Amino acid sequence: MCTRLLSSLSSVLSSPSLPFSLFSLFILLVFVLHLWRRGGGSSRPTLVRGPGVWRLQFGPWLWEEGHLTCFSVRCRLGPLFSMQLGPHFTLVVNSYDLAKEVLLTRGRDFAGRPKMLLTRGGKDIAFCDYSALWKSHRRLVHSALSLFGEGGRLQDIGKRPRETLIIHGCVDDLVAELGSVGSRAFDPSAAVTRAVTNVVCTLVFSATYRRDDAELKEVIDYNNGIVETIARGGLVDLFPWLQLEEQVGLERPVRLSDRTRLPYVEAVIQEGLRIRPRQPGPHSPHGHPVQPGTRVLVNMWALHHNPTDWPKPDLFNPRFLDGRGGRVSPSCFLPFGAGPRVCVGESLARLELFLFLSSLLQRISFSLPPAGPVPDLRGRLGVVLQPPPYLVVATPRHT
Ligand code: HEM
């Protein structure tokens, strides 16, 4: 990093446009100093009552310097603090109680979105302000996706053979692709991204992307996949409900009805969603009035890593089961957000997570390359939190 910085600096210094570069550098320094001075000292917000407060959808800056920053920020500044994000006065919500108020109790007041250049006028769903346009778009998408049942009620989804067939088709392609690589270590992110993208593309456009599709490559380059590697422990002797294979076997595809028999898979998925939340979702708090136009962020990272709610929060521990294998769902677990702007794709996402993960584990053994690096689990900045590139060996289990 330092070397790259030095080499860029030396090329700038040797360039004919040196006066211009120095001027730009000067302007940049003044700007940074200005922001630093404005931001400094505002550890507690001054709040003013007002209706219709905006909230910001994505705030990956919270992960700068690694995810732990979020938590240390929470420790230092408590459940609510303000900061100056460029020109925007921004409140950051770090506790479940305040998040509940922002997302649910006063959900509509905080359901707005700021205007952002990149969103081209916010005509989509995620970036659209709380408006009649957003409502009609959301209703449209929701009715399409509610083919999958209401959020979390996967038993309803089991009655939808077309959707599960589509997912199984994409899983089959993925298994074939992963299984064809052989014993060399590789990064499966692109294949997995294509498989989950193809589920939505088949449902909506009846079309899928093939390998090496230029358009898909562009999407992947931008988004770079969301994949989790999960190692299985040897706890099955102690806890019978951990036996995956015994519940489903290796011969037939995993069905949604297997979900009740695979609570550990579910708990692993929940833990993955907790320990690496998609983003610090947006939104205020304990009756504190908030000035209109203030951006409010719900720091999902802090919510999901609060040691009061989650003992040893940085430990990956599928804790969503009680001692007898029954499901536990703490109210402070909000991987899909809550309230009016809750994730509209939650049902589909849960369906895919279950079928992809259980089918992949059923048909492929994943291992680390013998001499390779252990995947970096910190995540990296993006529109959503993504895993950095990593290598695994995928060995088909049926041959
Ligand atoms: C593991 C998978 C997923 C996670 C963890 C996730 C999480 C989230 C979260 C936290 C939000 C913001 C909620 C808020 O602002 O309070 C969101 C919004 C959204 N999600 Fe997802 N999501 C997932 C998958 C999907 C899928 C598969 C789709 C579509 C097929 C989808 C479509 C959307 C849309 C359209 C919004 C914006 C909703 C609005 O602003 O009204 N998501 N999601």
Descriptive keywords:
Cytochrome p450; Cyt_P450_E_grp-I; binds protoporphyrin IX containing FE; steroid 17-alpha-monooxygenase activity; membrane; 399 residues; Cyt_P450_sf; two-stranded antiparallel ribbon; mainly alpha; 13 helices; Cyt_P450_CS
Discrete helix count: 13
CATH topology call of one domain: Cytochrome p450
Main beta-sheet strand count, sense and barrel state: 3 strands, mixed
How much of the sequence lies in strands comes to 5-15%
- Spans of at least 5 consecutive residues whose pLDDT stays below 50 are 1-72, 149-157, 225-240, 280-286
- Mean model confidence by pLDDT: 70
Give the C-alpha Rg.
23 Å
The set of bound ligands, ions and cofactors reads: protoporphyrin IX containing FE
Q: Strand order within the widest sheet?
A: 1-2-3
Give an account of the 3D structure.
There is one protein chain. The chain has 399 residues and is mainly alpha-helical. It has a domain of 195 residues: Cytochrome p450 (Orthogonal Bundle), CATH 1.10.630.10. It is built from 13 helices and 5 strands. The strands form 2 sheets. Strands 1-2-3 form a 3-stranded mixed sheet. Helix 7 runs antiparallel to helix 8 and helix 7 packs across helix 13. Bound molecules: protoporphyrin IX containing FE.
